[in-house]
Amino acid sequence: MPSQIYSLRKGTNPNAKGLALKEVLDLFGRLFNQLRADGYFDEAFGFICVDAGELPGKVRDPQLEMLLTIRKPGLWPIYEKIPFYSEDDLLDVVEFLYRYVSKPIDGTRHSFADCGMHWETFNKQDGQREYRDRVNVVLSQYERQFELSTDGEILTKAEAGFEPIFAADLPSSDSNVTTRINAAMRQYRRHGSTIDDRRQAVRDLADVLEYLRPQVKTLLTAADEKDLFNIANNFGIRHHNDKQRTAYDASLWLSWMFYFYLATIHVVLRKLDQPGCR
Questions:
Q1: How big is the CA angle at 247 (ends 245 and 248), to the nearest 5 degrees?
Q2: How many CB atoms are closer than 10 A to CB 261?
Q3: Does the CA dihedral 228-206-170-217 come out positive or negative?
Q4: How far apart, in whole angstroms, are the C-alpha atoms of residue 124 and residue 111?
Q5: In this predicted model, what pLDDT tens digit does every residue of 40-62 receive, in sequence order?
Q6: Contact by Cβ (8 Å): 187, 193
Q7: Is the alpha carbon torsion for 144, 92, 71, 34 positive or negative?
Q8: pLDDT single digits (tens) 213-231
Q9: Any residues with CB less than 8 A from the CB of 255 and at least 6 apart, and which?
Q10: Which H helix or E strand runs over 78?
């Protein structure tokens, strides 16, 4: 089965590059309403019973909680305010809701006036996973590509062709390597990351290679090894002095440096993981 519908494959769809923010806000609002109706926010925000009226959840005042967390007024109730959201508002609310979603598991049906289910037990992990999957379907329609991570954080989607490198396992149990690499990937891809954030991500990857340098020496010639570290040491990444070469388009070249170092680390680690290389 084709991965895309006919007009998207052909390139004639007027929204081939994605939907505008207005349409995505509508999609997310409808998704939230579905999840709310299905009980995915009953544990946190409560629900309305035809007999008892409004029954609070663990978060007694969602509007206050949202204001304290996001530091923006006027975002709740979502169904009323979402048409006026900015992009940042939408992504803030997506992250906020991830913290409070939980899948309804069991409860009792209140049949009077077709009130519906009164859910009593919930599974947070399952709820977050399903929420993330469904939200990412909505975000994938947006002309600016984002995704919600398993940690509940909005990230910029990987550039086309580089998706596998972010999903690939790191063949290392050394926390000095894995922790630094994971932190660099999050910092680079985090929504709203600045040039300085991305430069720091590249610096962290270069530091991982520096940590692995004794092993790298066994895999590369002296000249190749020198070239590998030349980028970080002489192009304003790891040092700050008048000898640094900084006259380049940082937004473009930092992206290249990041993927170059990340791919190199994966190659080095996999090579070292082969029998006889230890």
A1: 105
A2: 25
A3: positive
A4: 26
A5: 999 999 998 888 788 889 999 99
A6: yes
A7: positive
A8: 888 778 777 777 777 777 6
A9: 159, 198
A10: helix 78-81
